[in-house]
Amino acid sequence: MGLEDRDALAALQAAVYPLAHSDELIAKFYTTWFAIDESVRDMFPPDMAGQRAVFAHALNWLFGEFVAQRADEPVAFLAQLGRDHRKYGVTPEHYKTLAHALYATLSSELGSAWTPAVEDAARQAINLIGGVMSGAAAAEQGPAWWEGTVVEHHRVSRDLAVVRLYLDRAMDYHPGQYVNVEVPQWPRRWRYLSPAIPAQADGAIEFHVRAVSGGMVSTAIVAETRPGDRWRMSSPHGALEVDRDAGDVLMVAGSTGLAPLRAIIMDLCRFGVNPRVHLFYGARYPCELYDLPTLWEIAATNPWLSVTPVSEYDTNPPWAAEYPDPQPPRGLHVRQKGLLPDVVTRYGGWGDRQILISGGPGMITRARDALIAKGAPPERIQHDPVGG
Ligand SMILES: Cc1cc2nc3c(=O)[nH]c(=O)nc-3n(C[C@H](O)[C@H](O)[C@H](O)COP(=O)(O)OP(=O)(O)OC[C@H]3O[C@@H](n4cnc5c(N)ncnc54)[C@H](O)[C@@H]3O)c2cc1C
Ligand code: HEM
User: Fold this and answer.
1) Which residues have C-beta within 8 Å of that of residue 329, sequence separation ≥ 6?
2) Strand partners, 180
3) Which of 179, 192, 231, 290 is the best mutation target for the ligand 1 pocket, counting ligand atoms within 8 Å of the beta carbon and taking the most?
4) What is the pLDDT of residue 322?
5) CATH for 2-139, among 1.20.1050.10, 3.40.50.10490, 1.10.490.10, 3.40.50.800?
6) Quick one: pLDDT at residue 193?
7) Cα(85) to centroid of ligand 2, in Å?
8) CB 3.0–4.6 Å: which of 104, 222, 335, 361 could bond 211 by disulfide?
């Protein structure tokens, strides 16, 4: 039966279900894998909690798809994951040792649930997962990663930096997509960042980074990145987009969540006629609305764009004096005070709009919930995966 045995597959899914103590099983899997393949340990960060969570999440989703007897989506996901994993230097041998370790862990941890039928399903599922990932990786002709050199680093506010690079070879991405980035200050700590400009044929690329409190990589980028630093990045992901034939657009950008929306807006500038786009751009303090001058320039020549700046506080903190004043010339909407989800929904539910939300995980969730509560149809709301 193997992959057709839904009960056996459901038993495997239950074993890796993230909310039901599967962390112990996943931890045993990694310990087993690192013991049988020493070359693997150094590829992962010392603290494996995050990795255990994403791995359990991926396996749980995959087994759920297998239980539902769906093949297209899991195979497409695994193929993309395999192509992406090339950036970590994964080899076919790694897939073999992973398969041994996963099989050994499941067989020892499932206890009485490890029946011949479950064993059969586990063997076939593990073979399928490794086979699709390694096969897609081997078949991919494109580069495993892109490298680029930092040419500018602007500390535009205490916690914000704009970083410009030239990639050694241009990357083709859709405006609004994001990439996984590795910086020299924190080798092997890949983080997602969204290019703030559309893809350029000469390899120019720009990122806007906010240092999150206690954050390892973001604080290093904001405080320590220098021209000459070499960054590595993986192939683009994400599906944020404006359908130019699907009506007017509401965009909600919290801090550097502006980056992908700005890339989309810049791309729209190629067209003479566009749907109306209303962008709410929010930050804690007025001085943190670092990109207002650029947005003002775009809005000044593109009548379809209107921008409402929003800040949580009305006045600036004392440290604002050390950074450039982002006050644009008159012409944008008057700055609103409050939290983005509250300010945006003061204007209604925006039910007739395509809605794109981008920012920190808390803001995305609150803005989405607030808009739905005001009547916005959930299927018209887009945002990147929350977290990561
Ligand atoms: C699809 C996607 C696109 C992204 N694009 C950008 C971008 O263009 N610019 C940008 O600055 N960041 C972006 N991020 C966030 C970025 O990937 C990192 O998560 C963030 O920089 C924190 O990394 P860190 O290593 O500094 O923090 P970590 O050391 O990983 O975490 C430290 C603490 O900060 C919390 N934390 C993590 N991320 C956030 C966050 N976004 N907001 C608030 N608290 C957080 C963690 O829960 C933890 O408590 C994006 C994230 C995703 C998922
Ligand atoms: C069952 C097959 C596998 C699954 C489902 C899987 C899943 C994942 C996921 C979801 C992530 C986080 C997102 C990402 O970076 O894409 C990840 C990261 C990673 N994976 Fe895998 N993976 C598998 C096999 C492998 C193999 C064979 C290796 C080889 C060593 C590997 C090495 C890594 C590394 C190094 C990271 C980054 C860890 C970090 O920097 O935090 N993975 N994996």
Assistant:
1) 296
2) 192
3) 192
4) 93
5) 1.10.490.10
6) 98
7) 6
8) 222
